[in-house]
User: Fold this.
Amino acid sequence: MDDETLACGRLLAALATAGRTIHILYATDGARSPRVREDDAQAVVRSRAREAHCAAAALGLSAHRLSFLALPDGSLARHTVSLTRGVGRLWDGVRPGSVLLPFRYDRHPDHLALHRAALACAGRAPGRPVLWEYFVYYRWRLVPGGDVRRCVREDVIHEPATLVFSEHKRRALECYRTQTTVWAPGQRRAIIPQSRVEEVSTAPELFAKMEAGGRSPLAPGVRSWVRVTHRLEPKLKQIKDTAADMAHGAVTMRRGRRSRRLAPADGAASEVPPPTRVVVFASPFPLPAEWLFLARVDAHPKLELTGVLCRGSGTGGRERMVDAWRRRGWLAPAVLLADYGRRYLQRAGPDRATRVRLRRRFRVAPNVHAPDVLRWAESLRPDIGVVYGGPILKPELFDIPTRGTLGVHHGQLPEYRGKKTIFWAMFNGEKSAGVTIQKINTGLDTGEVIREGAVRIRGRSYGAVSREVQALGVDLLLDAILAKGQTGSGTSRGSGGMLYRDPSAADIARFVVSRFRSR
Assistant:
């Protein structure tokens, strides 16, 4: 698992978009990456299989076309018969027109064993499928330029134009949390660090076309050197890893003598349940509190932010102004200026780097209920949906998450339904402003109440109350998501109460005057 994305992710996404049928065969069970105790290896196997399905969905592939031989990780060479039979069964059933297989001089022994099994099946397969070798470990220290792909002849090397699918590849790689995060107890660093994810997402994807007769794809002047370094590179990496492990072990022992803890407690690496997959329906121009919510979901170990769907025409400055004008009319300039002040003067919300990273999960569409958008939302396989500053949804969208869709409403239900309820609660002289987490239904603020809270109003400014209400809403919403959206009052507050609208300029003027007089 993950090799298909590392080496071929953009190509697979491009082929899927073009309507090509793609099958993926995973030969090993992935139990040794990351390495854990034997008792916990099965948890790794299940996690990696889930990750493979997640990555396939991110690339636009069908989950039912994934096959798992589940052979022991790291020892395919000792299971040649089972491996060749497994490859042959899929090959005979699919009758492929093209086959992608690991590079014949790959550094990993499992990749080499899979290459040999594929060649054995190709020799007896009906038809003449085109064979392409892909590169997983192409960084070689001992070859010219440090990239073994430069040693391949120019007449057989190909680079498909797939750069537009970089984001698909990045999202697919992020599905492999066992590889891209420090996942297992005692693990020092991620197997695939973020720098590697960024590199391969945009780096060239190259493929070597295999020629009849098995002619070497290597350039004549470097063939012997590549064959020699092919044997040396794995040994050098093994020496390097052993030295690093020994150094880490010495540090761990020294720390252990001080703290009297030499190893993780028993059961520390027990099975970790899969994270709850969350899709968020938001504004293309989130406010600081909305950014904070997205960042907290993304950083939580029990949650996975699969995507953010927004209604709009873009995320640029012009689109931002049009959106503000549509929602606020003549108040748009003041709203944008206030937002600028909160973000840049008060440093509200996450930093710019976090916002840029989260933006990669956004999809902005003029019609969020369009068929292609609905298919995209279904491909995320979300467990829970969340509406936070997003558009009004129809059942065909908010019913996609398997556990329903939650929404945060900054108001007490059913008394304060609609828009700007914090303003109206203060306008009406209430003692507190409410926050309600509800399940989304076809009504407007009429869903089942999951969580609720309140913030004191008396003697406080509108800005202070609004910030505290929003912070409380983020906390309650996260609590409801982690509870899987299943706990609450079990009742709907109905459609009673007042349905409020955006305040007019006259309403705001009366509110300001009343606040001034109260002082």
